[in-house]
Input
Amino acid sequence: MEIANSVLDMVGDTPMVRLRRVTDGIACPVVAKVELTNPGGSVKDRPAIHMIDQAEASGQLQPGGTIVEPTSGNTGVGLAIVAAQRGYRCVFVMTDKVSPEKVSLLEAYGAEVVVCPVAVEPADPNSYYSTAERLVHEIPGAYRPNQYDNQANPESHYLTTGPEIWRQSDGLLTHFVAGVGTGGTITGVARYLKEQNPAVQIVAADPEGSVYSGGSGRPYLVEGIGEDFWPSTYSLDLVDRTIAVTDSDSFLTARRVTREEGLLIGGSCGTAVHAALEVARESGPDDLVVVLIPDSGRGYLSKLYDDGWMASFGFLVDDGPTVGDVLEAKRTDVPTLIYVQPHSTVRDAITTMRSLGVSQLPVAKGEMPIAAAEVMGAVTELRLMELTFENDAVLDKAVEAVMGPALPTIGAGQRVELAVELLESAQALLVLDGGRPRSVVSRTDVLGFLSPDQAPAPA
Output
């Protein structure tokens, strides 16, 4: 009888399928290794089993123990499946950019989830790395697999994923493309493939802003790949090329694959496919590009598959006059986005507002282009005037000490009618375009757009 002994025996031997419609006009074939058919719905089932097997064998994880791990969701699901089979407790730490479905999914397996802010440094006590480390020390019998430093992670792909790809492609692949999170998948697969044929090109697909493609690790919206540090599970020497992909290209490519290929995939899959298509366009009909699809899109229904969410971050454009049209009609003598750093003084903020003729400023960390998660709050001319009148010593305080809530946001492609509605209760809106802050739009800007001959001069 063809009956698996347990759900763990169903991990691996995932299929490969040719992408035909999204490659229209491209001579080079592109084949997807579809990891969403694993019982946990992602490629992370593979290292989850291998890491726990090795922890049990070494005595690091004892019967009745607790598995603690920081995760974007998929590794947590894999570990939760193993824990369910073997009787372990699970505590997972996630960032607040992770979709609500992923939190609910982990809780469905009986895991406990701790959510931490994404826009903090790894060494910050509130980061998900630091929080996980604290919990390991606080919980008796806790074991942290540490997928970023556990060599069982890439080894699982060397032993399973790599051989499967080589066998399924009959050894004819010329390029392998995968996103990089911990680096375990691409490292393990690359090591195996290059042992079979050193000429196989290994291409890393990386979110724009991640350290792997030269960024600083500043926040981006794609989940599960990219990093703000270099894990020991990633072997850069095995990677021939790294392609940076924007959030916009990642999400729109994922939606396109789902609608044109009938394959429901996640945002990081869109990153990988976008990079694979770029490689394929540069290749010929005798080449073969294999791209790894790490997970399903079921965990992202409230985000990249929600038109409202996509529009609110400026990834989609509505019909009719949009906020982007308002921005195009704005004054050209003012920088696109004016903001103040949290450590700047109130005096500096006031000077900036006076010199540029604006009455409010977002407060954000970092240099342009900033991420939405780096926006911390806002200051207004009226509020600063009131504070200064009460005590002029406030002029030398840091802006972060006196700032108010961040400005409400709106997507650049959303309709002007929505901006009018939001501006009934707000002085200004922060406009997001491609997931990043682009500009601030005020009541005066909208009025000037709607009635160009009637609007007063900007104050």
Notes: The domain at 312-450 is CATH 3.10.580.10 (CBS-domain). The chain has a mean pLDDT of 93.
